[in-house]
Design brief:
The structure holds two protein chains of two kinds.
Chain A lengths: L1 H26 L7 E7 L18 E5 L9 E2 L6 E7 L5 E7 L7 E6 L4 E4 L7 E7 L3 E8 L7 E8 L6 E2 L5 E8 L5 E7 L7 E6 L7 E5 L4 E9 L4 E8 L7 E6 L8 E2 L7 E7 L5 E6 L7 E6 L4 E7 L4 E8 L19 E6 L19 E7 L4 E6 L6 E6 L5 E6 L4 E3 L12 E4 L23 E3 L12
Parallel strand pairs in A: 25-31, 28-32
Antiparallel strand pairs in A: 1-2, 1-24, 2-3, 4-5, 5-6, 6-7, 8-9, 9-10, 10-11, 12-13, 13-14, 14-15, 16-17, 17-18, 18-19, 20-21, 21-22, 22-23, 25-28, 26-27, 26-29, 29-30
Chain B lengths: L1 H35 L8 H5 L6 H7 L6 E6 L5 E6 L4 E6 L4 E7 L4 E6 L5 E6 L4 E6 L4 E7 L4 E6 L5 E6 L4 E6 L4 E7 L2 E8 L5 E8 L10 E8 L4 E9 L7 E3 L6 E8 L14 E8 L7 E5 L10 E6 L5 E6 L4 E6 H10 L2 H7 L10 E6 L4 E6 L5 E6 L4 E6 L4 E7 L8 H10 L11 H4 L9 E3 L9 E3 L21 H4 L2 H8 L6 H13 L17 H10 L16 H4 L10 E2 L13 E2 L21 H6 L15 H13 L10 H12 L1
Antiparallel strand pairs in B: 1-2, 2-3, 3-4, 5-6, 6-7, 7-8, 9-10, 10-11, 11-12, 13-14, 14-15, 15-16, 17-18, 18-19, 19-20, 21-22, 22-23, 23-24, 25-26, 26-27, 27-28, 29-30, 31-32
Helix pairs in contact in B: 6-10, 11-14
The chains are: A mainly beta, B alpha+beta.
Chain lengths: 473, 679
């Protein structure tokens, strides 16, 4: 009798267990192949084209099945007042996004488990964050507003572990920085816009995830603006949206090739009317794009053929929402996990320039009349940090206080500026960085010769640096 | 009772095993951590200990005999392709209609090149490790003669009338001129340093010979590599064309019109602080263009892109119409197709100043690179079919030949050479060592600075803590598995540590090797890299009279004045056989002002004749200079009492040193190292 009861009890437990598993699995169904995007209420959609970051009050992150879009729509961020900027993890199991829980909250980075549909807050700052992206090694990069240091508030890039620990600022110049994507070579591609001393055009820079070796990746045509999101395909093309000033609704899909980004721009949609707002390449070689035929139409989700340079079928649209920032839930190759040379026990970095008189390819007749520079001045935000005579071969070797924005200006023997000031640069602690010249051709590699400057110890900038104790001491 | 005893015994064993498990794991963890210098390398005894077996049954089971196709030639009618299998010591004959291997001819050790005469009835194969040429009758597919050459015969060229065969002697840096009627070497001409590639001008009157290593240069100056021009009429050197700031010029090809010849080359950045890879800071790769005539220009152009490098260019061929050149890049597994019309246009419009800038310009390749064609692992030799419609590519570490349509510029077929089908761990490691994909932007492979797994003869500014300090002379990778520590300062106690995490931070500056990749790389370095035979200075193990005298100097215990030399100051104390290193750290008074203080690892001396320059920073251009210039205080062994003829003898003896296997059974002198250790 007792054994019968036990058997019945076990059967009941088994049924309950199986049912539970079934119900959980229904909720935990994988999302591979689904499209995820941000839907923005048309009434809340306002773009200030000169701004790098765009956040949309009341926006939600939505997923659809492309095979049955009308009957598969699911809002993934119902617990949030606003959510946007979805980014899929390399294994397609998680989703990074930006959200505010309540109307007046700051925007923070969250991560969603795409099986369980549960979200976890990653950043928790008073200031708003934006532009999150996955980095190799269970880290992420994002932008965060930093306090006004007297020249206006800017957005710097930070990295941190996905569990919210080990926050590290990685850009240190008076610019707006926004992470656009992680290149397959492991570098961060970020959109940046100078604020001080004068506002400048947007450009893409590429940099290692520890904030070292930042260099120009792509600068658009004068008067053109760049979208804050970009994606690199397996064959090395980096796609993004570019638009002419004042024509935000007429954005075009363009690409550059990672091998030679400064000179490989291709416009795929110059012959197509309407405007493109977001682009996401998928492994088939096509793309999913946010597009509207005219300014008065809602921005909808379309396919786009790169090969044919033609717009494909409309996938999904709303009458009262725009669809932006589409991504496909699909595993993709993790970028390289680059080693880290930054040593936070150091307070300086080393900068070497082979010949400050190399300013561009030598056949540029506009530069032939420049006088010879004999000194270089290192400029800080609000003062000169020092003037250093260069060696006879034009080389300089400087030890510069780290994590501090500087610009460089070359000076002739009469004290007149030869070139510069340069764009803002910074060195990370223990970073060692080299340049061929100043304002030189970005595709020029150095001449192979022993520089005179490195035969001596580096010149400290600022001069009192030798008295600055090491960090942590 | 006996039954219980057995049970108790088994139980006891089990208990001991259970109790010993944790300590054993702890010991293993510590051991692996010590060897690898990281704390998370998987605990797998086999991954290391199994695959580093050099000899015995296990070694035979886990390794395989690969063919490794290297250079090739096509018969004049295009019906047969002849492939030198460098590791297999064979000449493979392929029917190009069926794309099948139809015969395998055994040739000498480590064959390098093959050339076919105009009638298509005779082939010549250079046996680099045998110092001879095999003449092969192609109707019989048999070796019919053997011709002695200089040391390390490599590239081959037939004179226009086919009466003479020219051989680049890669180890003795000479060119052998062979009279094909008498089958004898009639003269040797001095070539550049480590000559390899050859081509005859379309008119037949000029022979160009590339070389790989820089000429001896004043310390701290850029490499300069010679392209030797020989007048085939007079059979004398006509000119020595110098390529500034370039080396590893593997091969050269003339255009059919003879309006230029193009050689592959590497432009290293060894004198610049090695602080980054971005912007071509460590290595760039390209071509050297030689215009004919007395005033012909020498131009260097890169084949790299700003963010993507095409490392280790090896072979070059030019289509019969003179419009395209194909270059194999063995470090990245690509063929670059070059538009020669665009090259001609660029040269015509450019001033010397512009061309000088272009030699360092990473974007200029967009003017003339038509396409990059992917290949299998480690593409080396190239050969065109007679009409130029097909390009054959020797995929060395794939044991395969790729067939590329030169019109479509894509691979249309592959020919399986029927080597071993499995990829052994060591083979995987060899692929890693040869592949630049493990360096940021593919800028260089291990092989780039260690060509033939040896060293490139350059001194690099590795910019340790400060730039401009601690210059490092590249060391060989040959047979180094048993002689830790590694690096001149001996900081790396194992190859695992040498090529692990720090390697990626300092050298490759991209993601470090995965654990299984590191296991494979170590397996290859420990087991797969042999010293070539020292046929030049010690062909049969019998020393010359001078070498015998030099040996006595090397092993001497007393000076010429009869004073006993302290043990620590004797040559053989720090350099005992079989590797001629005691693997200990020592101060020999050779540090310079630019060195941080350190002790130096006593280097091995096997095959040292081919490792110039010498000392940790490459200051000594020759072995002689070790004593004549850099040993004032006798810290590098007592030697200032030596007479000049004694020094000459000592150098001759050192040049005779060959692979360690020849010195293992030498108890007479092996005691020296133990003496020091006991001290």
């Amino acid at each position: 009798m007792n054994s019968n009861r036990t058997i019945i009890l076990l059967k009941v437990l088994l049924v309950i267990g199986l049912s539970g598993t079934f119900l959980i699995s229904c909720k935990n169904e994988p999302m591979n192949g689904m499209f995820v995007f941000t839907r923005v209420p048309i009434d809340n959609f306002a773009i200030h084209e000169k701004e790098i970051t765009h956040k949309y009050p009341g926006a939600q992150i939505v997923t659809i099945n492309p095979d049955n879009p009308d009957k598969s729509e699911i809002i993934l961020t119902t617990d949030f007042y606003s959510a946007c900027s979805p980014r899929i993890s390399y294994d397609a199991k998680h989703l990074l996004f930006l959200a505010q829980q309540n109307k007046n909250d700051s925007w923070q980075v969250w991560e969603m488990d795409l099986r369980k549909r549960t979200s976890m807050k990653i950043t928790d700052f008073e200031e708003s964050c934006s532009g999150p992206a996955y980095l190799p090694g269970n880290r992420l990069v994002f932008s965060r507003q930093i306090p006004d240091s007297g020249i206006g508030s800017d957005m710097a890039l930070f990295t941190m572990n996905l569990d919210g620990s080990n926050v590290s600022q990685i850009t240190f110049h008076p610019l707006f920085d926004y992470c656009s994507t992680i290149l397959r070579d492991g570098r961060i591609l970020f959109l940046t816009k100078q604020l001080y001393p004068v506002s400048d055009d947007m450009m893409y820079l590429a940099m290692r995830p520890n904030g070292t070796k930042a260099e120009l990746f792509f600068k658009g045509t004068d008067g053109y603006f760049l979208n804050n999101q970009a994606y690199e395909t397996m064959d090395g093309f980096v796609y993004f949206i570019e638009w002419e000033q004042g024509k935000y609704n007429n954005g075009d899909i363009v690409s550059v090739h990672q091998n030679r980004p400064l000179f490989t721009k291709v416009n795929y949609t110059s012959e197509i009317g309407g405007g493109f707002h977001s682009v996401f390449p998928i492994q088939s070689g096509d793309m999913i794009v946010s597009y509207h035929p005219s300014e008065t139409d809602p921005i909808a989700l379309y396919r786009f053929s790169v090969k044919e340079k033609s717009l494909g079928e409309s996938i999904f649209s709303y009458s009262d929402y725009h669809i932006l920032e589409p991504v496909l839930v699909e595993a993709y190759t993790r970028p390289r996990n680059l080693p880290d040379e930054v040593n936070h026990k150091e307070s300086t970095g080393l900068l070497f320039s082979q010949d400050i008189n190399i300013t561009a390819t030598q056949h540029d007749t506009n530069l032939l009349f420049l006088s010879k520079a004999t000194k270089i001045e290192v400029l800080g935000i609000d003062k000169s940090l020092g003037i250093v005579p260069v060696e006879e071969d034009g080389s300089i070797y400087l030890k510069i206080i780290a994590d501090t924005p500087i610009r460089l200006r070359t000076i002739d023997e009469n004290g007149k500026t030869v070139s510069g000031p340069s764009a803002w640069i910074w060195l990370r602690p223990n970073e060692r960085r080299g340049c061929v010249g100043c304002h030189e051709d970005h595709e020029l590699s150095p001449e192979n010769r022993v520089p005179l400057s490195v035969k001596k110890p580096p010149v400290c900038i600022p001069a009192e640096l030798s008295e600055i104790s090491k960090k942590g001491n | 009772m006996k039954k219980y005893l057995i049970l108790i015994f088994i139980a006891g064993i089990l208990i001991i095993l259970v109790l010993a498990r944790k300590p054993a794991l702890n010991w293993s963890r510590q051991h692996v951590n010590y060897i690898t210098a990281v704390e998370d390398h998987p605990l797998n005894c086999l991954s290391c200990h199994l695959y580093i077996q050099k000899e015995g049954i296990v070694a035979k089971l886990i390794n395989a005999d690969y063919l490794s196709p290297f250079n090739m030639a096509v018969s004049p009618d295009g019906s047969r392709l002849f492939v030198v299998a460098q590791e297999g010591n064979k000449l493979l004959v392929i029917n190009t209609q069926t794309n099948k291997v139809i015969d395998k001819i055994d040739v000498g050790e480590n064959p390098h090149s093959v050339i076919i005469n105009n009638d298509g009835n005779t082939a010549f194969v250079s046996n680099q490790w045998a110092d001879n040429i095999f003449e092969i009758d192609l109707s019989l597919l048999k070796i019919v003669d053997t011709i002695k050459t200089g040391s390390g015969p490599a590239g081959l060229a037939l004179g226009a009338d086919e009466k003479f065969l020219y051989v680049a002697d890669s180890y003795s840096s000479e060119v052998s001129v062979i009279d094909l009627q008498t089958k004898t070497e009639i003269k040797r001409l001095m070539a550049g340093n480590n000559p390899v590639g050859t081509d005859i001008s379309p008119a037949g009157n000029l022979l160009y010979i590339t070389s790989r290593r820089t000429l001896p240069m004043p310390y701290g100056t850029p490499p300069m590599t010679e392209l030797t021009v020989i007048n085939t009429t007079t059979q004398r050197v006509k000119e020595r064309k110098i390529f500034d700031n370039a080396y590893i010029m593997e091969n050269v090809a003339f255009t059919p019109s003879g309006d230029m010849a193009i050689a592959t080359l590497i432009r290293p950045k060894n004198l610049i602080p090695a602080i980054q890879i971005e912007r071509g800071w460590m290595m760039t790769h390209g071509i050297g263009i030689i215009e004919p005539g007395d005033n012909g220009r020498i131009i260097q152009l890169l084949t790299d892109d700003p963010n993507s490098y095409y490392s280790d260019p090896f072979d070059i061929v030019i289509t019969p119409d003179g419009e395209k050149a194909f270059v194999s890049h063995s470090g990245v597994d690509y063929i670059t197709v070059i538009d020669l019309k665009a090259i001609r246009a660029l040269l015509a419009e450019s001033t010397p100043e512009m061309l000088d800038t272009y030699s360092n310009h990473l974007g200029i390749s967009s003017r003339y690179v038509l396409k990059r064609i992917p290949t299998g692992a480690n593409p080396k030799g190239l050969a065109l079919s007679p009409e130029g419609e097909y390009l054959y590519v020797a995929e060395r570490l794939e044991d395969r030949i790729a067939v590329i349509s030169t019109e479509k510029m894509e691979t249309i077929n592959t020919i399986d050479l029927k080597g071993p089908s499995r990829i052994t761990v060591a083979r995987k490691g060899r692929r890693l060592l040869n592949n630049a994909g493990y360096t940021f932007h593919n800028q260089y492979a291990c092989y780039t600075c260690h060509p033939d797994s040896h060293e490139d003869g350059l001194v690099y500014n590795m910019a340790g803590k400060d730039m401009g300090r601690n210059l490092a002379n590249v060391q060989t990778l040959r047979d180094i598995g048993d002689i830790p520590p590694y690096k001149w300062n001996g900081k790396n106690s194992s190859i695992y540590k040498q090529d692990g995490m720090r390697f990626s931070t300092i050298l490759t500056r991209t993601e470090s090797f995965a654990f299984d990749e590191l296991d494979a790389l170590v397996a290859y370095i420990v087991t797969g890299i042999k010293n070539p035979p020292n046929l030049r200075y010690n062909p049969a193990g019998k020393l010359t009279a001078a070498q015998e005298r030099g040996k006595k100097v090397f092993y001497r215990t007393h000076t010429n004045c009869g004073k006993e030399i302290p043990v620590k100051d004797r040559c053989f104390t720090c350099h005992p056989p079989p590797y001629f290193t005691n693997m200990l750290m020592v101060d020999v008074g050779t540090l310079s002002e630019t060195d941080d203080y350190m002790l130096l690892d006593a280097p091995q001396l096997n095959n040292i004749y081919e490792s110039a320059p010498y000392l940790h920073d490459g200051r000594a251009a020759t072995l002689e200079e070790l004593w004549t210039t850099y040993n004032d205080e006798d810290k590098h062994g007592v030697g200032n009492d030596m007479m000049k003829d004694q020094l000459n003898d000592l150098v001759e003896y050192l040049r005779s040193l060959r692979d360690a296997k020849y010195y293992i059974e030498d108890p007479e002198i092996y005691q020296a190292s133990t003496h020091l250790k006991n001290d």
